[in-house]
Amino acid sequence: MIKIPSKERALDMYEKMYLIRAYEEEIYYLFFEGIMPGTIHQSTGQEACAVGMLYDLRKDDYMATTHRPAGHDLAKGVSLKSMMCEMFGKAEGCCKGKGGAMHTGDFTVGAMTANAIVGGNLPIAAGVALAFKMQKKDNVVVCFFGDGATNEGAFHEAMNAAATWKLPVIYACENNLYSATTSIKITCNMENPAADRAAAYNIPAEVVDGNDVLAVNEAARRAIERARKGEGPTIIELKTYRRCGHSRNDACGYRPKEEEEAWYARDPIALFRNRILEEKVATEAELAAIENRITEEIKEAVEYAKNAPFPALESALEDIFWQGGND
Amino acid sequence: MAVMSIADALKSAIAEEMRRDPTVFCIGEDEDIPGGMGGAFTVTKGLADEFGFERVINTPISEILIAGVCVGAAMVGMRPVADLQYSDFLFCMMDQLVNQAAKMCYMSGGQVKVPMVMRAPCGATNRGAQHAQSPESYFVHVPGLKVVCPSTAYDAKGLMKQAIRDDNPVIFFEHKLLYGSSRKEAGAINASSEIPDEEYIIPFGKAAIRREGKDITIVANLLMSHRAIQAAEILEKEGISCEVIDPRTLVPFDYDTVIESLRKTGKLMIIHEDHYNLGWGAQLAAYIAEHEIYLLDAPICRVAAYDTPIPFSPPLEEYVIPSTERIVKTARVLAEM
Questions:
Q1: What CATH number does residue B314 fall under?
Q2: Residues 6+ positions from B94 with CB-CB distance below 8 Å
Q3: Mutating which of B63, B65, B201 best tests the A interface, going by the most A Cβ atoms within 10 A?
Q4: Which residues from chain A sit within 8 angstroms of residue B115, using beta carbons?
């Protein structure tokens, strides 16, 4: 078992995980009450992957995410208020209401616009990493993708080039066992669809318990260090599980109940909370204080976003081409 | 002042921009392999001698990767100039161009720009259906992409420099029969120009009037602009005076120059090597019909590649692609209307 970090660090990680959980649960409620428009692809249950992978990135390091971006964005530092406004399609959303649930992001904190084409972000992350290398920067990119993306052609093309060019990119596969409703077992003849393929590209890989935030974080730190030192990419396969459907109105009828129960018993937030308490890093009261504060912040963000103005209609015709002027 | 082919003018534009701006780099398959060709058509040959292989990147045969790397690098301050070898391969990277490059600025709410140039050699050249297309229209249809199609070396250089400096994704079509490179092509046309020694840039959205005339306005791009000029010379002798307009960029499109010409001629003929069905001429025809129909004295007339895959056999290929003769015949009918 990995040693628990300092109190400050442990509580900060816990807070970020709790924020993601509380955010996703609030979004779920808002959506099903019909208050929020659009569709949702939630990361409930995958909080340890987001926080563990991103906790030690610098602000100017980049993160590329998927159609399930909220946890990654919040962990990378996108503001709660701008996320919530984006979910409501409001002008103050992180993408001015033009992105929506599957395209959140904020470049000022290194959170690239989320990518809702499965596998689409893999070569783009390679491009960002190539640019960092050409610019002689020591920045790195963490690129998330799901188990399903490993069967895309883009995966092969990106892995081959990242390895050949020794790019400073960490490919983090959140293997939640299902691509939408289809079990990865019936679409891929490998136990670890991302990590088992790594050898084919001569990329180092690790398979990690994606529900243990400290295990994820330790693997992430190893990979980040390798990338910063110019030693090239790493594939990290995180074994995890959604505590929600793929998208709206998905009751997960395709998942065996015993499997769900086994995974639900290993909830990443409960696991980490218990360790903090067992090892007396913090008290129940201290954790409750964090949780109450987050709950309040989310409540405020929802109220703010609900009352915030929609974008001016003419804004739909802006930003088709870059309007920031030449640099 | 030196006379240059399109291939050399493009190389000179790219090299000048690489010297001027360290964020510009070239990337593609066979981009500049010692002993190789420099892309498929010599444009990038030798660039690594000056700029090194860090800025002239030879890629695997991975079109999704090439386009994706351009999108990613462009988003963090680089200006990639990619080479596709054949525009037919654009279809292998459609997701990255259409869903990614074209939409990033918009989806992000204007947070990020994607300055990249995708060079796409196009046109039918006896290579069969998968190395023959002129697929400009697919990209004209996508909001967020700019589409450029030079037909002379002078334009190629000025437009390439603008494309590299533009802050948006640009699909840059180069016709294989117009390159004038050391790689000889049957049916090639000399599109060389005198290139000024001093730097120049051609802005997007400004058509060029290749030849003035008063009876018919012909709008034609790439190879077809040359055939339109040939046709106009023949027609002139028969007393039919044609104004030939080369749009030079399809997005943005210079409708004004076409409309001004129609005020004189009242007759519009559109010629492209792209297919007839929804080729870019369909948009121009619709636009004129919608906004300026009272300028027209006759139906709009389009001459385009027939709606077939491009056949290999030279006479068949020649039949499918608009020939100077087909243009002349069509213009005679239009002149009589």
A1: 3.40.50.920
A2: none
A3: B65
A4: 322
Which of A99, A129, A326 shows the shortest C-beta gap to B109? Answer: A99
Count of structural domains, chain A: 1
Position A76 in a domain: yes
Of A53, A82, A80, which Cα lies nearest the Cα of A66? A53
What residues of chain A lie within 8 A of the CB of B65, using their CB? Answer: 123, 126, 154, 157-158, 160-161
**Is there a contact between A120 and B68 if contact means CB atoms under 8 Å apart?**
yes
DSSP lists the bridge partners of residue A235 as: A171, A205
β partners of residue A313 = none
From first to last of its 327 residues, chain A has per-residue pLDDT tens of 899 999 999 999 999 999 999 999 999 999 999 999 999 999 999 999 999 999 999 999 999 999 999 999 999 999 999 999 999 999 999 999 999 999 999 999 999 999 999 999 999 999 999 999 999 999 999 999 999 999 999 999 999 999 999 999 999 999 999 999 999 999 999 999 999 999 999 999 999 999 999 999 999 999 999 999 999 999 999 999 999 999 888 889 999 999 999 999 999 999 999 999 999 999 999 999 999 999 999 999 999 999 999 999 999 999 999 998 544
Residues B60 and B132 in one domain: yes
Distance to chain A for B111, nearest Cα, Å: 7
Does B60 sit within 8 Å of A157, measured CB to CB? Answer: yes
Q: How many folded domains does chain B comprise? A: 2
**HSE toward the beta carbon, residue B62, CA cutoff 13 A:** 25
Write out A73-105 in H/E/C secondary structure. Answer: HHHHCCCHHHHHHHHCCCCCCCCCCCCCCCCCC
What's the rounded Cα separation, in Å, for the pair A71 and A75?
A: 6
Q: Which residues of A touch B111 (CB under 8 A)?
A: 95, 105-107, 113
A129 and B72 in contact by Cβ < 8 A? yes
In a domain, A15, yes or no: yes
Give me the residue label for tokens 């001093």. B198
- Separation in Å, CA of B42 to nearest CA in chain A: 24
B79: nearest CA partner in chain A:
A131
CA distance B25 to B30: 15
List Cβ neighbours of A35 (8 Å cut-off, separation of 6 or more): A306
Contact residues, chain B, for A321 at CB < 8 Å: 105, 144, 146, 167-168
Active site residues of B: 131
Contact check, Cβ <8 Å, A98/B76: no
